[in-house]
Design goal:
40% of the residues lie in helices and 19% in strands. By secondary structure, the chain is α/β, with parallel strands linked by helices. The chain starts with a helix and ends with a helix.
Amino acid sequence: MPDEYLAQVQAIIRACEDTDGVLVVDRNGIIRDHRIAMDYYWQDKETVGRHILELYPDLDEESSTILRVLRTGQAIYDQRQEITNSRGERVVVDATTIPLMVGGRVEGAVDFARFYVVGQRIVRGGRKGGLSSLDRIITRSPKMEELKRRVRSVALLDSPVLIFGETGTGKELVAESLHSEGKRASGPFVAQNCAAIPTNLLESIFFGTEKGSYTGAVTRMGLFEAADGGTLFLDEINSMDVSLQAKLLKALEEKKVRRLGGSQAIPFDVRIVAAVNEPPQDLLRAGRLREDLYYRLGVVRLNLPPLRERREDIPLLTKYFIEQYNRSMKRHVRGLTEAVEARFLQYPWPGNVRQLRNVVEGAFAVARGELLGEDEVADSLGLWMESDAPAPTAATPPTLPEGSLSLTHAVEEYEKALIRQAMARWGSISAAARNLGLSRQNLKYKLQKFDL
Protein backbone atom coordinates (compact mmCIF):
# COMPACT_ATOMS: atom_id res chain seq x y z
CA MET A 1 0.00 0.00 0.00
CA PRO A 2 1.51 3.37 -0.98
CA ASP A 3 2.55 5.57 1.94
CA GLU A 4 0.09 8.29 0.85
CA TYR A 5 -2.92 6.01 1.30
CA LEU A 6 -1.56 4.38 4.46
CA ALA A 7 -1.18 7.78 6.13
CA GLN A 8 -4.76 8.70 5.18
CA VAL A 9 -6.13 5.42 6.55
CA GLN A 10 -4.21 5.84 9.82
CA ALA A 11 -5.47 9.40 10.23
CA ILE A 12 -9.06 8.30 9.58
CA ILE A 13 -8.83 5.42 12.09
CA ARG A 14 -7.53 7.78 14.78
CA ALA A 15 -10.27 10.32 14.07
CA CYS A 16 -13.01 7.66 14.25
CA GLU A 17 -12.46 7.15 17.96
CA ASP A 18 -15.21 8.67 20.13
CA THR A 19 -17.07 10.27 17.24
CA ASP A 20 -20.81 10.77 16.70
CA GLY A 21 -20.92 11.08 12.93
CA VAL A 22 -18.86 10.60 9.77
CA LEU A 23 -19.52 12.52 6.57
CA VAL A 24 -17.72 12.00 3.24
CA VAL A 25 -17.78 14.65 0.51
CA ASP A 26 -16.33 14.78 -2.96
CA ARG A 27 -14.07 17.58 -4.17
CA ASN A 28 -17.12 19.74 -5.00
CA GLY A 29 -18.50 19.55 -1.46
CA ILE A 30 -21.30 17.12 -2.40
CA ILE A 31 -22.07 14.57 0.32
CA ARG A 32 -21.42 11.01 -0.86
CA ASP A 33 -21.83 9.13 2.42
CA HIS A 34 -23.12 10.06 5.86
CA ARG A 35 -23.25 7.90 9.00
CA ILE A 36 -24.47 9.38 12.28
CA ALA A 37 -25.26 7.77 15.64
CA MET A 38 -28.05 10.21 16.56
CA ASP A 39 -31.16 8.91 14.82
CA TYR A 40 -33.15 12.04 15.72
CA TYR A 41 -30.79 14.23 13.65
CA TRP A 42 -30.04 13.92 9.92
CA GLN A 43 -30.79 10.63 8.17
CA ASP A 44 -28.49 9.70 5.27
CA LYS A 45 -31.42 9.87 2.84
CA GLU A 46 -31.76 13.57 3.76
CA THR A 47 -28.10 14.39 3.17
CA VAL A 48 -26.49 12.23 0.50
CA GLY A 49 -26.34 14.02 -2.84
CA ARG A 50 -26.64 17.50 -1.31
CA HIS A 51 -23.98 20.17 -0.93
CA ILE A 52 -22.69 20.77 2.59
CA LEU A 53 -23.92 24.38 2.47
CA GLU A 54 -27.46 23.14 1.87
CA LEU A 55 -27.38 21.58 5.34
CA TYR A 56 -25.55 24.50 6.98
CA PRO A 57 -26.38 27.62 4.95
CA ASP A 58 -24.79 30.10 7.38
CA LEU A 59 -21.33 28.64 6.69
CA ASP A 60 -19.07 29.83 3.89
CA GLU A 61 -15.77 28.77 2.32
CA GLU A 62 -13.83 30.13 5.28
CA SER A 63 -15.97 29.06 8.24
CA SER A 64 -16.68 25.54 6.93
CA THR A 65 -13.90 23.13 7.86
CA ILE A 66 -14.89 20.89 4.95
CA LEU A 67 -14.63 23.60 2.30
CA ARG A 68 -11.34 24.88 3.76
CA VAL A 69 -9.83 21.41 3.66
CA LEU A 70 -11.02 20.93 0.07
CA ARG A 71 -9.35 24.23 -0.84
CA THR A 72 -6.09 23.89 1.09
CA GLY A 73 -5.53 20.15 1.37
CA GLN A 74 -4.58 20.63 5.04
CA ALA A 75 -6.33 18.63 7.77
CA ILE A 76 -8.18 20.45 10.58
CA TYR A 77 -8.44 18.85 14.01
CA ASP A 78 -10.97 19.40 16.82
CA GLN A 79 -12.31 22.78 15.75
CA ARG A 80 -15.33 23.93 17.78
CA GLN A 81 -18.16 25.28 15.60
CA GLU A 82 -21.43 26.90 16.69
CA ILE A 83 -23.68 27.02 13.65
CA THR A 84 -27.34 26.91 12.57
CA ASN A 85 -28.54 24.19 10.23
CA SER A 86 -31.12 24.53 7.46
CA ARG A 87 -33.89 23.52 9.87
CA GLY A 88 -33.05 26.47 12.12
CA GLU A 89 -31.51 24.32 14.86
CA ARG A 90 -28.49 25.58 16.78
CA VAL A 91 -25.65 23.06 16.55
CA VAL A 92 -22.45 23.01 18.60
CA VAL A 93 -19.92 20.50 17.33
CA ASP A 94 -16.20 19.68 17.35
CA ALA A 95 -15.10 18.88 13.80
CA THR A 96 -12.06 16.99 12.55
CA THR A 97 -11.74 17.08 8.76
CA ILE A 98 -9.16 15.13 6.78
CA PRO A 99 -8.51 15.50 3.03
CA LEU A 100 -8.66 12.51 0.67
CA MET A 101 -5.69 12.79 -1.69
CA VAL A 102 -5.22 10.98 -5.01
CA GLY A 103 -1.98 11.60 -6.85
CA GLY A 104 -1.31 14.72 -4.81
CA ARG A 105 -4.71 16.20 -5.64
CA VAL A 106 -7.60 16.75 -3.20
CA GLU A 107 -10.45 14.53 -4.36
CA GLY A 108 -12.64 14.79 -1.28
CA ALA A 109 -12.70 14.95 2.51
CA VAL A 110 -13.88 12.97 5.52
CA ASP A 111 -15.43 14.91 8.39
CA PHE A 112 -15.73 13.49 11.91
CA ALA A 113 -18.07 15.22 14.36
CA ARG A 114 -18.54 15.18 18.11
CA PHE A 115 -21.88 16.86 18.82
CA TYR A 116 -22.60 18.84 21.97
CA VAL A 117 -25.86 20.64 21.19
CA VAL A 118 -28.53 19.96 18.56
CA GLY A 119 -31.50 22.31 18.73
CA GLN A 120 -33.05 22.10 22.19
CA ARG A 121 -31.11 18.96 23.07
CA ILE A 122 -27.66 18.83 24.66
CA VAL A 123 -26.15 15.53 23.63
CA ARG A 124 -22.81 15.52 25.38
CA GLY A 125 -22.05 16.68 28.90
CA GLY A 126 -19.29 16.24 31.42
CA ARG A 127 -16.58 18.64 32.51
CA LYS A 128 -15.16 18.72 28.99
CA GLY A 129 -18.56 19.00 27.35
CA GLY A 130 -18.61 22.76 27.11
CA LEU A 131 -21.56 23.16 29.46
CA SER A 132 -22.16 26.35 31.36
CA SER A 133 -20.69 26.62 34.83
CA LEU A 134 -21.46 29.22 37.47
CA ASP A 135 -18.50 31.31 36.33
CA ARG A 136 -20.28 31.85 33.00
CA ILE A 137 -23.38 33.35 34.64
CA ILE A 138 -22.47 37.01 34.36
CA THR A 139 -23.80 39.23 37.13
CA ARG A 140 -23.12 41.82 39.78
CA SER A 141 -26.67 41.62 41.12
CA PRO A 142 -26.97 40.61 44.80
CA LYS A 143 -30.03 38.50 43.91
CA MET A 144 -28.13 36.57 41.27
CA GLU A 145 -25.02 36.19 43.43
CA GLU A 146 -27.21 34.65 46.14
CA LEU A 147 -28.75 32.36 43.53
CA LYS A 148 -25.29 31.26 42.39
CA ARG A 149 -24.31 30.45 45.98
CA ARG A 150 -27.45 28.34 46.34
CA VAL A 151 -26.84 26.55 43.03
CA ARG A 152 -23.31 25.68 44.15
CA SER A 153 -24.59 23.98 47.31
CA VAL A 154 -27.61 22.34 45.66
CA ALA A 155 -25.45 20.92 42.85
CA LEU A 156 -23.80 18.52 45.30
CA LEU A 157 -27.16 16.90 46.08
CA ASP A 158 -29.03 14.39 43.94
CA SER A 159 -32.49 15.82 44.67
CA PRO A 160 -34.82 16.99 41.88
CA VAL A 161 -34.79 20.75 41.24
CA LEU A 162 -37.59 22.96 39.93
CA ILE A 163 -36.53 26.28 38.40
CA PHE A 164 -38.99 29.14 37.92
CA GLY A 165 -38.09 32.07 35.70
CA GLU A 166 -39.65 34.09 32.92
CA THR A 167 -38.74 33.29 29.34
CA GLY A 168 -35.20 34.41 28.56
CA THR A 169 -33.91 34.63 32.15
CA GLY A 170 -31.34 31.84 31.75
CA LYS A 171 -33.00 28.74 33.21
CA GLU A 172 -30.94 26.44 31.01
CA LEU A 173 -27.70 28.07 32.18
CA VAL A 174 -28.68 27.31 35.77
CA ALA A 175 -29.60 23.73 34.86
CA GLU A 176 -26.27 23.24 33.11
CA SER A 177 -24.47 24.66 36.14
CA LEU A 178 -26.27 22.27 38.48
CA HIS A 179 -24.94 19.46 36.31
CA SER A 180 -21.39 20.69 35.71
CA GLU A 181 -20.85 21.60 39.39
CA GLY A 182 -22.26 18.32 40.72
CA LYS A 183 -21.18 14.74 41.13
CA ARG A 184 -22.81 13.70 37.83
CA ALA A 185 -20.64 16.05 35.77
CA SER A 186 -18.87 13.18 34.03
CA GLY A 187 -22.22 11.81 32.84
CA PRO A 188 -24.51 13.05 30.07
CA PHE A 189 -26.60 16.21 30.27
CA VAL A 190 -29.74 15.89 28.15
CA ALA A 191 -32.07 18.88 27.72
CA GLN A 192 -35.53 18.93 26.18
CA ASN A 193 -37.82 21.93 25.73
CA CYS A 194 -41.29 20.44 26.19
CA ALA A 195 -42.94 23.36 24.37
CA ALA A 196 -40.86 22.73 21.24
CA ILE A 197 -42.33 19.27 20.57
CA PRO A 198 -45.93 18.50 19.53
CA THR A 199 -47.86 16.77 22.32
CA ASN A 200 -48.44 13.63 20.25
CA LEU A 201 -44.67 13.13 19.88
CA LEU A 202 -43.60 13.91 23.45
CA GLU A 203 -44.40 10.47 24.85
CA SER A 204 -42.26 8.65 22.30
CA ILE A 205 -39.42 11.12 22.88
CA PHE A 206 -39.61 10.66 26.66
CA PHE A 207 -39.90 6.91 26.79
CA GLY A 208 -38.49 5.71 23.46
CA THR A 209 -40.02 3.37 20.89
CA GLU A 210 -39.74 -0.18 19.62
CA LYS A 211 -39.93 -0.95 15.93
CA GLY A 212 -43.50 -1.60 14.84
CA SER A 213 -45.14 0.14 17.81
CA TYR A 214 -46.85 2.41 15.27
CA THR A 215 -46.61 3.01 11.52
CA GLY A 216 -43.04 3.99 10.66
CA ALA A 217 -41.74 3.50 14.21
CA VAL A 218 -38.11 2.44 14.70
CA THR A 219 -36.26 1.24 17.77
CA ARG A 220 -35.11 4.36 19.59
CA MET A 221 -34.12 5.12 23.17
CA GLY A 222 -35.94 7.86 25.06
CA LEU A 223 -34.69 10.77 27.10
CA PHE A 224 -34.39 8.83 30.36
CA GLU A 225 -32.17 6.19 28.77
CA ALA A 226 -30.06 8.84 27.00
CA ALA A 227 -29.50 10.69 30.30
CA ASP A 228 -28.73 7.57 32.36
CA GLY A 229 -25.98 8.35 34.86
CA GLY A 230 -26.36 12.09 34.33
CA THR A 231 -28.95 14.88 34.34
CA LEU A 232 -32.20 15.31 32.42
CA PHE A 233 -33.38 18.91 32.07
CA LEU A 234 -37.05 19.39 31.15
CA ASP A 235 -37.71 23.00 30.20
CA GLU A 236 -41.21 24.54 30.08
CA ILE A 237 -42.70 21.43 31.66
CA ASN A 238 -45.88 23.45 32.20
CA SER A 239 -46.59 23.09 28.46
CA MET A 240 -46.86 19.30 28.84
CA ASP A 241 -50.32 17.70 28.69
CA VAL A 242 -51.60 16.72 32.16
CA SER A 243 -52.10 13.08 31.08
CA LEU A 244 -48.44 12.85 30.11
CA GLN A 245 -47.48 14.47 33.42
CA ALA A 246 -49.06 11.46 35.17
CA LYS A 247 -46.95 9.03 33.11
CA LEU A 248 -43.85 11.11 33.83
CA LEU A 249 -44.58 10.98 37.56
CA LYS A 250 -45.00 7.19 37.43
CA ALA A 251 -41.64 6.79 35.67
CA LEU A 252 -39.93 9.02 38.24
CA GLU A 253 -41.43 7.08 41.15
CA GLU A 254 -40.50 3.66 39.73
CA LYS A 255 -37.18 4.79 38.19
CA LYS A 256 -38.03 2.57 35.25
CA VAL A 257 -39.31 3.26 31.75
CA ARG A 258 -41.00 1.12 29.14
CA ARG A 259 -40.61 2.06 25.47
CA LEU A 260 -43.76 2.46 23.38
CA GLY A 261 -44.50 -0.96 21.94
CA GLY A 262 -41.99 -2.59 24.27
CA SER A 263 -42.50 -5.11 27.07
CA GLN A 264 -39.28 -4.68 29.02
CA ALA A 265 -38.99 -2.23 31.94
CA ILE A 266 -35.69 -0.38 31.61
CA PRO A 267 -34.18 1.06 34.82
CA PHE A 268 -32.53 4.49 34.76
CA ASP A 269 -30.44 6.56 37.13
CA VAL A 270 -31.10 10.22 36.33
CA ARG A 271 -31.21 13.49 38.24
CA ILE A 272 -34.21 15.55 37.12
CA VAL A 273 -34.06 19.32 36.74
CA ALA A 274 -37.31 20.87 35.52
CA ALA A 275 -38.28 24.45 34.71
CA VAL A 276 -41.47 26.48 34.33
CA ASN A 277 -41.84 29.97 32.87
CA GLU A 278 -45.00 30.86 34.81
CA PRO A 279 -45.51 31.06 38.61
CA PRO A 280 -46.00 27.48 39.89
CA GLN A 281 -48.91 28.48 42.13
CA ASP A 282 -50.74 29.94 39.13
CA LEU A 283 -50.17 26.70 37.19
CA LEU A 284 -51.47 24.63 40.09
CA ARG A 285 -54.61 26.76 40.45
CA ALA A 286 -55.27 26.55 36.72
CA GLY A 287 -54.82 22.75 36.73
CA ARG A 288 -51.96 22.94 34.22
CA LEU A 289 -49.42 21.38 36.58
CA ARG A 290 -50.25 18.29 38.62
CA GLU A 291 -49.84 18.91 42.32
CA ASP A 292 -48.21 15.52 42.95
CA LEU A 293 -45.71 16.11 40.12
CA TYR A 294 -44.98 19.60 41.45
CA TYR A 295 -44.05 18.27 44.87
CA ARG A 296 -42.04 15.43 43.33
CA LEU A 297 -40.02 17.81 41.15
CA GLY A 298 -39.87 20.73 43.57
CA VAL A 299 -37.79 19.15 46.32
CA VAL A 300 -35.44 22.09 45.71
CA ARG A 301 -36.87 25.27 44.15
CA LEU A 302 -34.89 28.05 42.52
CA ASN A 303 -36.33 31.39 41.35
CA LEU A 304 -34.56 33.43 38.66
CA PRO A 305 -35.18 37.19 38.83
CA PRO A 306 -36.20 38.90 35.57
CA LEU A 307 -33.79 41.38 34.03
CA ARG A 308 -35.92 44.35 35.12
CA GLU A 309 -35.19 43.35 38.74
CA ARG A 310 -31.42 43.22 38.17
CA ARG A 311 -30.85 46.37 36.13
CA GLU A 312 -27.28 46.66 37.37
CA ASP A 313 -26.52 43.68 35.10
CA ILE A 314 -27.72 45.40 31.90
CA PRO A 315 -24.44 47.28 31.16
CA LEU A 316 -22.39 44.21 32.10
CA LEU A 317 -24.39 41.87 29.84
CA THR A 318 -24.43 44.42 27.02
CA LYS A 319 -20.65 44.66 27.12
CA TYR A 320 -20.36 40.87 27.11
CA PHE A 321 -22.63 40.50 24.06
CA ILE A 322 -20.80 43.29 22.20
CA GLU A 323 -17.47 41.54 22.80
CA GLN A 324 -18.99 38.23 21.71
CA TYR A 325 -20.35 39.63 18.43
CA ASN A 326 -17.15 41.57 17.77
CA ARG A 327 -15.32 38.24 17.78
CA SER A 328 -17.84 36.30 15.72
CA MET A 329 -18.53 39.08 13.18
CA LYS A 330 -14.99 40.48 13.13
CA ARG A 331 -16.19 43.96 14.08
CA HIS A 332 -14.82 46.70 16.36
CA VAL A 333 -17.87 48.13 18.12
CA ARG A 334 -16.86 49.91 21.34
CA GLY A 335 -20.26 50.18 23.00
CA LEU A 336 -23.52 52.16 23.07
CA THR A 337 -24.21 55.85 22.71
CA GLU A 338 -25.20 57.60 25.94
CA ALA A 339 -28.80 57.90 24.75
CA VAL A 340 -29.10 54.16 24.08
CA GLU A 341 -27.40 53.34 27.39
CA ALA A 342 -30.08 55.36 29.18
CA ARG A 343 -32.87 53.73 27.20
CA PHE A 344 -31.50 50.24 27.89
CA LEU A 345 -31.58 50.96 31.63
CA GLN A 346 -35.19 52.23 31.43
CA TYR A 347 -36.61 49.59 29.10
CA PRO A 348 -38.67 46.81 30.84
CA TRP A 349 -37.08 43.93 28.83
CA PRO A 350 -40.09 41.58 28.70
CA GLY A 351 -37.91 39.01 26.93
CA ASN A 352 -35.16 39.36 29.55
CA VAL A 353 -31.51 38.47 28.83
CA ARG A 354 -32.39 36.65 25.60
CA GLN A 355 -34.09 39.76 24.26
CA LEU A 356 -31.11 41.94 25.21
CA ARG A 357 -28.80 39.59 23.32
CA ASN A 358 -31.09 39.62 20.28
CA VAL A 359 -31.27 43.43 20.29
CA VAL A 360 -27.46 43.71 20.38
CA GLU A 361 -27.12 41.14 17.58
CA GLY A 362 -29.71 42.96 15.48
CA ALA A 363 -27.91 46.28 16.04
CA PHE A 364 -24.64 44.70 14.84
CA ALA A 365 -26.33 43.66 11.61
CA VAL A 366 -26.97 47.30 10.62
CA ALA A 367 -24.22 49.13 12.51
CA ARG A 368 -21.66 51.13 10.56
CA GLY A 369 -19.79 53.02 13.27
CA GLU A 370 -18.02 52.20 16.53
CA LEU A 371 -21.05 52.95 18.72
CA LEU A 372 -24.54 51.45 18.59
CA GLY A 373 -27.04 54.31 18.50
CA GLU A 374 -30.78 54.78 18.34
CA ASP A 375 -30.88 54.09 14.60
CA GLU A 376 -29.34 50.65 15.17
CA VAL A 377 -31.75 49.57 17.91
CA ALA A 378 -34.86 51.30 16.56
CA ASP A 379 -36.05 48.24 14.63
CA SER A 380 -35.87 46.00 17.71
CA LEU A 381 -37.21 48.49 20.26
CA GLY A 382 -39.10 50.69 17.82
CA LEU A 383 -42.56 50.40 19.34
CA TRP A 384 -41.28 51.62 22.66
CA MET A 385 -38.83 54.21 21.31
CA GLU A 386 -41.39 55.77 18.93
CA SER A 387 -43.79 56.58 21.77
CA ASP A 388 -44.03 60.25 22.72
CA ALA A 389 -44.96 59.22 26.24
CA PRO A 390 -42.29 58.76 28.91
CA ALA A 391 -40.49 55.44 28.66
CA PRO A 392 -42.23 52.72 30.69
CA THR A 393 -40.47 51.27 33.70
CA ALA A 394 -40.97 48.10 35.68
CA ALA A 395 -42.55 50.18 38.44
CA THR A 396 -45.38 51.41 36.17
CA PRO A 397 -48.16 48.78 36.26
CA PRO A 398 -50.69 48.43 33.45
CA THR A 399 -54.17 49.84 34.03
CA LEU A 400 -56.48 47.26 35.57
CA PRO A 401 -60.22 46.97 35.03
CA GLU A 402 -62.13 48.58 37.88
CA GLY A 403 -62.37 46.32 40.90
CA SER A 404 -59.55 43.98 39.81
CA LEU A 405 -56.54 43.57 42.07
CA SER A 406 -55.12 40.38 40.57
CA LEU A 407 -51.37 40.55 39.93
CA THR A 408 -51.62 37.57 37.57
CA HIS A 409 -54.36 39.34 35.58
CA ALA A 410 -52.31 42.55 35.40
CA VAL A 411 -49.24 40.72 34.10
CA GLU A 412 -51.34 38.87 31.52
CA GLU A 413 -52.96 42.11 30.29
CA TYR A 414 -49.53 43.74 29.94
CA GLU A 415 -48.18 40.68 28.15
CA LYS A 416 -51.16 40.60 25.76
CA ALA A 417 -50.68 44.29 24.93
CA LEU A 418 -47.00 43.75 24.09
CA ILE A 419 -47.78 40.74 21.93
CA ARG A 420 -50.54 42.61 20.05
CA GLN A 421 -48.13 45.51 19.36
CA ALA A 422 -45.35 43.17 18.24
CA MET A 423 -47.61 41.25 15.86
CA ALA A 424 -48.99 44.51 14.45
CA ARG A 425 -45.50 45.90 13.85
CA TRP A 426 -43.60 42.88 12.57
CA GLY A 427 -46.46 40.93 11.01
CA SER A 428 -45.10 37.40 11.42
CA ILE A 429 -44.77 35.08 14.41
CA SER A 430 -41.06 34.51 13.73
CA ALA A 431 -40.18 38.21 13.57
CA ALA A 432 -42.36 39.11 16.57
CA ALA A 433 -40.89 36.24 18.63
CA ARG A 434 -37.34 37.32 17.76
CA ASN A 435 -37.96 40.91 18.82
CA LEU A 436 -39.82 39.91 22.00
CA GLY A 437 -36.99 37.58 22.98
CA LEU A 438 -39.24 34.50 22.83
CA SER A 439 -38.99 31.20 20.99
CA ARG A 440 -41.38 30.87 18.05
CA GLN A 441 -43.10 27.92 19.78
CA ASN A 442 -43.55 29.91 22.99
CA LEU A 443 -45.10 32.87 21.16
CA LYS A 444 -47.48 30.53 19.29
CA TYR A 445 -48.52 29.07 22.63
CA LYS A 446 -49.16 32.54 24.09
CA LEU A 447 -51.16 33.61 21.02
CA GLN A 448 -53.39 30.56 21.50
CA LYS A 449 -53.57 31.04 25.27
CA PHE A 450 -54.68 34.67 24.98
CA ASP A 451 -56.85 33.98 21.90
CA LEU A 452 -55.03 36.66 19.89
